[in-house]
Amino acid sequence: MSLDLPQGMQINAPLHPRFEQILSREALELVAKLHRAFEPRRQELLKARVARQARIDAGELPGFLPETKAIREGDWKVAPLPKALECRRVEITGPVERKMIINAFNSGADSYMTDFEDSNSPNWYNQIQGQVNLFDAIRRRIDFTAENGKEYKLNDKIATLQVRPRGWHLDEKHVLVDGARVSGGIFDFALFFFHNAREQIARGAGPFFYLPKMESHLEARLWNDLFVMAQDALGIPQGTIKATVLVETILATFEMEEILFELREHSAGLNAGRWDYIFSCIKKFKKNKDFCLANRGAITMEVPFMRSYALALVQACHKRGAPAMGGMSALIPIKNDPVANEKALAGIRHDKTRDANDGYDGGWVAHPGLVPIAMEEFVKVLGDKPNQWGKRVEGSYGPKDWLNFQPEQPITEAGVRNNINVGIHYLGSWFAGNGCVPIHNLMEDAATAEISRSQIWQWVVSPKGKLDDGRKVTAEMVRALIPEELAKVKAVVSAQGEATATYDQAAKIFEEMSLSDNFPEFLTLPLYEAMD
Ligand SMILES: CC(=O)SCCNC(=O)CCNC(=O)[C@H](O)C(C)(C)COP(=O)(O)OP(=O)(O)OC[C@H]1O[C@@H](n2cnc3c(N)ncnc32)[C@H](O)[C@@H]1OP(=O)(O)O
Ligand SMILES: O=CC(=O)O
Ligand SMILES: [Mg+2]
């Protein structure tokens, strides 16, 4: 099997069955075209992130941009939404794995965000097989037979598909154009769009996307310009693509209206991506000696800096006629423990009730078993209306609220151990090809794992990183706890009948990442270099 590659392109990766169908000459031509047009700007924007981080490290605080005041004060709305995206009370998300894709489409959710990002381990096989799976699903040709003989196929009524490509920071290292790696996001988007956009339009829903981890409206402009070129390339009317932006970095909060404005012909609103958001707060202000967050479990949506961001997002969206989508609780159904399960489901209900009452038009769930509860809570508030754009959200929120990083306590030994344990467990699974795992009855993905490793880093470095019993969190303490937690992780993984081969390497990398002087910007950057 060999590929017919466009001029200047190299692919250094194995071809599994049907990969050549996804990696067709025409699809790769679109990848190359978008790469050549936009890669220099992606690189500039990534450099701008680094420069901004250096200024923040030196004490600069973010604020609203003076040069975009007219956008914030102007009278404009995003373009109307297509029918298929009007009602989004519950959105299920999950990695691009074949069985899960079928289950998610059939889950009863209004929409399904299929994920090449936080919940996906981006090895070559997962990325391209994910495209094969979506190709089949969109044409309603997907099926799957499990090892136990259970057969899976799509129901007549399925959720509306949205696709989350990788963020701007990630490369696709197996694909080079003119000697340079292509962007992971451009690669995922272009392959999906080339193969499926026309088919989706013919079927009345799509192409729709979710855009992750942006830090500025200029990054949103890059996506918008890319959409314009891609639509032209396929002869698809401008404005057909719709995309929801995850507001999951602290800096994006200062530019929410600008992000909607940049994408206004293509916008499907904003989503409060809480887990990357917490990670971003830690990352951006990690050198600020006044700032040190408490145990991960204490940073809920109810703490003031999270609550004020969540409410401001609803206000920004509704002012601009755009959906405000709630994020995801990490709670999942718990098997074999009815009491704990009831508690988890009550937690989900609480999360969705709060979001619905706050004015959100819908929200995310991690698991099909959570769809009915989330649906019930949004229907209670929405009734038969598709959205709550008419709802007035009281209050005025800004930098003082968003940068008030409390609580700072408790930090406990159990909290330190939990971060180490979760971090190692997640990294080991990621290397084994699974980007989303249940750990201690919670959903863990790349965003939640980032919180775990960055908290350890912060607690070691910050003078405020002290346990409730007075001990300072130190590198020595963390180094001593890592082998203990690694042993616990291996015991759990073995008990599940899974191999533990990847976990020693995971522990080593976790130690490097959480204790090195230089804070790696994303966990996934060095990890990706170490995977196939
Ligand atoms: C921070 C963020 O970015 S949030 C967005 C990214 N995160 C996600 O998308 C979460 C995705 N969720 C998942 O991967 C899983 O639900 C996990 C890992 C959290 C839990 O997995 P498990 O404990 O294995 O789930 P469990 O065994 O209860 O699954 C029961 C069934 O539901 C299915 N299922 C579970 N979650 C999902 C999902 N999100 N989509 C589709 N099917 C799912 C399973 O495949 C399984 O199907 P089967 O009975 O036909 O075999
Ligand atoms: O992508 C979502 C998040 O919470 O992070
Ligand atoms: Mg995220």
From TrEMBL:
The UniProt keyword set, sorted, is: Acyltransferase, Glyoxylate bypass, Transferase, Tricarboxylic acid cycle
- Per the record, the domain of life is Bacteria
Domain named Malate synthase C-terminal is located at 411-530
Concerning its family, UniProt says: Belongs to the malate synthase family.
Q: Which reaction does it catalyse?
A: glyoxylate + acetyl-CoA + H2O = (S)-malate + CoA + H(+)
Please give the pathway this protein is involved in: Carbohydrate metabolism; glyoxylate cycle; (S)-malate from isocitrate: step 2/2
The Malate synthase TIM barrel domain sits at 161-391
In this chain the Malate synthase N-terminal domain maps to: 8-69
The UniProt entry's GO biological process terms, in alphabetical order, are: glyoxylate cycle; tricarboxylic acid cycle
The entry's active site is R164 (proton acceptor), D445 (proton donor)
Work out whether the entry's keyword set contains Mitochondrion. no
Q: What is the lineage of its organism?
A: Bacteria, Pseudomonadati, Pseudomonadota, Betaproteobacteria, Rhodocyclales
What organism does the UniProt record list as the source?
Pseudothauera nasutitermitis
The enzyme class is transferase
Record's keyword annotation contains Transmembrane helix:
no
Example GO CC term: the record gives: cytoplasm
- Protein's recorded name: Malate synthase
InterPro entries found in the cross-reference section: Malate_synth_C_sf (IPR044856), Malate_synth_sf (IPR011076), Malate_synthA (IPR006252), Malate_synthase_CS (IPR019830), Malate_synthase_TIM (IPR001465), MS_C (IPR048355), MS_N (IPR048356), MS_N_TIM-barrel_dom (IPR046363)
The Gene Ontology terms for molecular function here are:
malate synthase activity
- Enzyme Commission number(s) of this protein: 2.3.3.9
